[in-house]
């Protein structure tokens, strides 16, 4: 095993992890028969990590992103020592606490108070240490009136909040976080955000797996993108977040286009003439072409922008001439990107009857795009041009 330098917290060298997956029962009879000749053991091999190498320095807030099944959680569990590598090595310098499966070890028949002491003991706290931080744990979890209730009467969200509130009391050198941003309601999530801000400001070493690209941009100092068990990209969190978002746009659009083809029974059709790219900087303009066919009356078009599933802006074509939309004729909507903050956006296009506003055709997520970069002064989808004086 290679020695790491003093400023390195985690060194991963040529890490490979393979699992043996039992064959389905329907395949086992065949396996037994053929196994006489092939020595088939009745399982298949699955390798979620393939020759991974990376180095995480002390004080880094290091992000690991990738689609479901890419291998990121397996990498995290290998770093945490939960999985043993089949090849390569993992070197950790310092104490490490994983926030991977919060609440593991909780007993549903015990009260919230008793589970705090149980979970704390599993994390290495003495009883006197838990006594000294108990009130702080309960205050953070905001579960004061429920601490004497049995855990089985807690909602799943309450259980995770309690587990998270215990786990953050650890004083480990390295924290390993897997999707903990999904904890609790909006107010509690904000408390989690504040906690992560403190970790970042205090130069705590953190390894962080998430699907939340806003969190990657906000907290991470460096990140990698994993695909099919390999590191495909590594670099700044802004670049990695943009790459991840673009990949997800392509995958979701393929799925949506297939659904549209299967469900389309309306003779009115909309063809989207897409730009040649899906990433834009704030000094550019999005020009989206639209071709409508099958209309037999006067109509107008509507362009809507959505972020995180919420439509926050739209613009219709009512102010254009009556013959603006004609069968087979391309029209174009121009959206200045300067109006938008960095992030992922979906475009919704719809065609409506002019006489009564009824909808003839609606294309959700007709086109998706990414605004690149990071703006530390603004948040939310719309870019406020106001200023402090």
What does this structure look like?
- With 389 residues, the chain is an alpha/beta fold.
- Among the domains are: 8-95 and 172-245, Rossmann fold (3-Layer(aba) Sandwich), CATH 3.40.50; 268-371, Distorted Sandwich (Coagulation Factor XIII, Chain A, domain 1), CATH 2.70.50.60.
- Helix content is 28%, strand content 33%.
- It is built from 8 helices and 17 strands.
- It has helices at 25-38, 72-79, 112-122, 127-141, 156-167, 186-201, 213-219, 237-263; strands at 8-22, 43-57, 61-65, 87-92, 96-99, 174-178, 205-209, 222-227, 230-235, 269-273, 279-280, 285-293, 299-307, 310-316, 330-336, 343-353, 359-371.
- The strands form 4 sheets. It has a 6-stranded mixed β-sheet, with helices on both faces.
- The chain starts with 7 loop residues before the first strand and ends in an 18-residue tail after the last strand.
Quickly describe the structure.
The protein contains eight helices and 17 strands. It has helices spanning 25-38, 72-79, 112-122, 127-141, 156-167, 186-201, 213-219, 237-263, and strands at residues 8-22, 43-57, 61-65, 87-92, 96-99, 174-178, 205-209, 222-227, 230-235, 269-273, 279-280, 285-293, 299-307, 310-316, 330-336, 343-353, 359-371.
Topology, pairings included?
Elements: E1 8-22, H1 25-38, E2 43-57, E3 61-65, H2 72-79, E4 87-92, E5 96-99, H3 112-122, H4 127-141, H5 156-167, E6 174-178, H6 186-201, E7 205-209, H7 213-219, E8 222-227, E9 230-235, H8 237-263, E10 269-273, E11 279-280, E12 285-293, E13 299-307, E14 310-316, E15 330-336, E16 343-353, E17 359-371
Parallel strand pairs: 3-7, 3-8, 5-6, 6-7, 11-17
Antiparallel strand pairs: 1-2, 1-4, 8-9, 10-12, 12-15, 13-14, 13-16, 16-17
Helix pairs in contact: 3-4, 3-5, 4-5, 7-8
């Amino acid at each position: 095993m290679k020695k790491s330098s003093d400023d390195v917290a985690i060194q991963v060298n040529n890490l490979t992890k393979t699992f043996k997956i039992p064959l389905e029962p329907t395949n086992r009879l065949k396996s037994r028969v053929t196994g006489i000749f092939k020595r088939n053991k009745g399982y298949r091999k699955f390798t979620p990590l393939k020759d991974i190498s990376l180095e995480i320095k002390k004080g880094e807030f290091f992000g690991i992103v990738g689609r479901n099944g890419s291998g990121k959680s397996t990498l995290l569990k290998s770093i945490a020592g939960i999985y043993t590598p089949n090849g390569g090595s993992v070197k950790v310098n310092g104490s490490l606490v994983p926030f991977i499966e919060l609440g593991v070890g909780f007993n549903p028949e015990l009260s919230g108070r008793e589970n705090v002491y149980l979970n704390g003991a599993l994390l290495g706290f003495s009883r006197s240490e838990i006594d000294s931080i108990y009130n702080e744990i309960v205050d953070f979890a905001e579960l004061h009136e429920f601490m004497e209730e049995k855990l089985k009467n807690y909602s799943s969200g309450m259980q995770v909040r309690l587990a998270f509130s215990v786990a953050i009391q650890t004083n480990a050198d390295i924290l390993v976080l897997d999707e903990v941003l999904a904890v609790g309601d909006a107010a509690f999530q904000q408390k989690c955000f504040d906690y992560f801000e403190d970790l970042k400001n205090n130069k705590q070493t953190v390894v962080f797996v998430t699907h939340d690209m806003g969190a990657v941009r906000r907290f991470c100092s460096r990140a990698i993108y994993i695909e099919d068990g390999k590191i495909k990209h590594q670099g700044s969190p802004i670049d990695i977040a943009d790459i991840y978002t673009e990949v997800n746009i392509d995958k979701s659009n393929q799925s949506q286009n297939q659904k549209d083809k299967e469900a389309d029974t309306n003779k009115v059709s909309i063809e989207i003439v897409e730009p040649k790219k899906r990433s834009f900087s704030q000094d550019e303009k999005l020009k989206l072409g639209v071709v409508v066919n099958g209309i037999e009356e006067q109509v107008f078009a509507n362009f809507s922008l959505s972020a995180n599933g919420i439509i926050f802006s739209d613009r219709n074509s009512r102010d254009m001439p009556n013959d603006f939309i004609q069968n087979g004729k391309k029209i174009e909507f121009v959206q200045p990107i300067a109006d938008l903050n960095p992030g992922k956006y979906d475009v919704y296009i719809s065609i409506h009857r002019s006489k009564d506003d009824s909808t003839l055709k609606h294309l959700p997520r007709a086109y998706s795009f990414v605004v690149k970069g990071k703006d530390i002064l603004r948040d939310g989808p719309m870019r406020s041009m106001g200023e402090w004086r």
